[in-house]
Amino acid sequence: MNTITTEQIKIWGIVQGVGFRPFVAKVAQRLSMKGEVLNLGGLVQLILTDTKPRIDAFLDTLKKEKPDRQKSSISVARKFHPGNLQGLRFFKARM
Known about the structure:
Strand content: 35-45%
Shape: globular
Radius of gyration: 12 Å
Number of helices: 2
Number of strands: 5
Strand order of the largest sheet: 4-1-3-2-5
Helix content: 25-40%
């Protein structure tokens, strides 16, 4: 049985001015992820609630399908987040 968890994920690389945050939100909606994405000056922060395998698959999809303008690799730092975004029905993008 896969346990639901909430993770805070920070992504950096060339993520500003290339449409990366809207791209992340679209992928999240397509994969029915729950959470939010925020621009934090030079990096993008995600807070996701799902199973670890689904969060892993989401991050793999981001790396494989990143926008052409986002040339450099993306670096990811993950940590447990004490919240639970289980009740959200959609992936919310905030600036």
